């Protein structure tokens, strides 16, 4: 069984890579303003190569300046949230945790809500989200710290406490916010959307989320060690503190930045890792890259539907679950949870 | 090789699990730690491995205090075999054994060909080569215990510390574990420390024994001197009967529980 899954990884990985590239090209053409596939390819290759222009300037702007940033960001956020889920599942040796577990997303959501309350500046709102994401993890960490160091179960409990606190604070802000103007924008913002993504957002998203993903990717084999019971992991002679620290930092940055760019998106961080586990097994050297690609593909698909299915944008957090839930429910029934072998 | 000097440990103030505990183990020797449930056998093993810190006294490895030895070096020479439990993420047998090489693999590196070869050799050595690519969730408890032993020998350690490796296993699997321990002891010159519930396993493995009892009672010495119906009654509150037989090589002893001890000890 394990062997089958591992050898399956040999074609899963390149297959997913090709699929992702194809979907990127397709998504760049799809929308209220349709651009044919061949033109998308030429427009994109004209960035690097010298291609004679056989498309309109409007098409070029739509593909390059409006859709591509959004596509790239959707992939990064999907990949980042999913791989954070995998890393945290290994860290806590528990397949049921996701990027919400440390309270970071709700902290970041609270920061964004305050930002919206105080200002209309997009950058300010994003900055507040990131800052409060960090505040949340700092709170979680300091609550969980005891004389003997940090115990993992303490970290989970502290994360739940901090998450609950910030969820309540978000409600409080919504309660006091001006119901005509501020309240709707807070609610819409938290529901999540990549609409209005610009090149500026990429400057924030690519380096921060990218670095987070790269850190987890780099230490992926050691996630296997980390997922052992604490003392067994220690007896493997690895620096547990460093490994845990790296994962907490990477997942915090990814989650906070993702929330700052697209609101609180649930579901992805829990379900995509499990879907990947079902396909290639649990060995993290294979699981991590597959999860990254699957997460990217999933959120790209969802975001493309979100912006093109109806005249108005459908919020991401709604669509991730509405599209994802039936799909994964069927999958779960079909396999009978068979990925745990 | 490994020794404890005036070791004292307590979870709660003034309620010592053990205190002023001393023993010394030479290279290649075997130590069986025996005692009733809850007396602190596992705690003692955790102290030997540095998972728990002694309240006072010290553990020494080749004359050096445990705290002074870098983690990486220590665990390359001293390996730990926990009791086989359910695995959270079912890696394949080979992948699981490969984890034993973690201290030799850089943080952002992956296992080399040499690491893979060593892991495969360890799997062969414990006799489960056909299971190499099986999931660790689809093998039996006894086989999983062998996997954990394979993981513990993958770095050619000098000391192996086992925490009740045979407790949950049936007779045959218990014997497989004991045979393997003897085989490894011989082939690799391993110094072995085992926590066990079975005096007979200590008798079979020979070497030294450490008896732990309530009220900070303890005895340390040669297994054959230490285990008899009197000590079994004192430590386990059980009446027992010793059986002896001889074969060409040596005299064997086993002890069997007969009933609960009548008089309070």
TrEMBL record, chain A:
<keyword id="KW-0813">Transport</keyword>
<keyword id="KW-1003">Cell membrane</keyword>
<feature type="transmembrane region" description="Helical">
    <location>
        <begin position="155"/>
        <end position="177"/>
    </location>
</feature>
<feature type="transmembrane region" description="Helical">
    <location>
        <begin position="100"/>
        <end position="118"/>
    </location>
</feature>
<keyword id="KW-0812">Transmembrane</keyword>
<dbReference type="InterPro" id="IPR000522">
    <property type="entry name" value="ABC_transptr_permease_BtuC"/>
</dbReference>
<dbReference type="GO" id="GO:0022857">
    <property type="term" value="F:transmembrane transporter activity"/>
</dbReference>
<dbReference type="GO" id="GO:0005886">
    <property type="term" value="C:plasma membrane"/>
</dbReference>
<feature type="transmembrane region" description="Helical">
    <location>
        <begin position="284"/>
        <end position="302"/>
    </location>
</feature>
<feature type="transmembrane region" description="Helical">
    <location>
        <begin position="243"/>
        <end position="272"/>
    </location>
</feature>
<keyword id="KW-0472">Membrane</keyword>
<feature type="transmembrane region" description="Helical">
    <location>
        <begin position="71"/>
        <end position="93"/>
    </location>
</feature>
<feature type="transmembrane region" description="Helical">
    <location>
        <begin position="124"/>
        <end position="143"/>
    </location>
</feature>
<keyword id="KW-1133">Transmembrane helix</keyword>
<feature type="transmembrane region" description="Helical">
    <location>
        <begin position="206"/>
        <end position="223"/>
    </location>
</feature>
<feature type="transmembrane region" description="Helical">
    <location>
        <begin position="314"/>
        <end position="332"/>
    </location>
</feature>
<dbReference type="GO" id="GO:0033214">
    <property type="term" value="P:siderophore-iron import into cell"/>
</dbReference>
<comment type="similarity">
    <text>Belongs to the binding-protein-dependent transport system permease family. FecCD subfamily.</text>
</comment>
<dbReference type="InterPro" id="IPR037294">
    <property type="entry name" value="ABC_BtuC-like"/>
</dbReference>
<dbReference type="Pfam" id="PF01032">
    <property type="entry name" value="FecCD"/>
</dbReference>
<protein>
    <submittedName>
        <fullName>Iron complex transport system permease protein</fullName>
    </submittedName>
</protein>
TrEMBL record, chain B:
<dbReference type="GO" id="GO:0016887">
    <property type="term" value="F:ATP hydrolysis activity"/>
</dbReference>
<keyword id="KW-0067">ATP-binding</keyword>
<dbReference type="GO" id="GO:0005524">
    <property type="term" value="F:ATP binding"/>
</dbReference>
<dbReference type="InterPro" id="IPR017871">
    <property type="entry name" value="ABC_transporter-like_CS"/>
</dbReference>
<keyword id="KW-0813">Transport</keyword>
<keyword id="KW-0547">Nucleotide-binding</keyword>
<dbReference type="InterPro" id="IPR003439">
    <property type="entry name" value="ABC_transporter-like_ATP-bd"/>
</dbReference>
<feature type="domain" description="ABC transporter">
    <location>
        <begin position="2"/>
        <end position="239"/>
    </location>
</feature>
<dbReference type="Pfam" id="PF00005">
    <property type="entry name" value="ABC_tran"/>
</dbReference>
<protein>
    <submittedName>
        <fullName>Iron complex transport system ATP-binding protein</fullName>
    </submittedName>
</protein>
<comment type="similarity">
    <text>Belongs to the ABC transporter superfamily.</text>
</comment>
<dbReference type="InterPro" id="IPR003593">
    <property type="entry name" value="AAA+_ATPase"/>
</dbReference>
<dbReference type="InterPro" id="IPR050153">
    <property type="entry name" value="Metal_Ion_Import_ABC"/>
</dbReference>
<dbReference type="InterPro" id="IPR027417">
    <property type="entry name" value="P-loop_NTPase"/>
</dbReference>
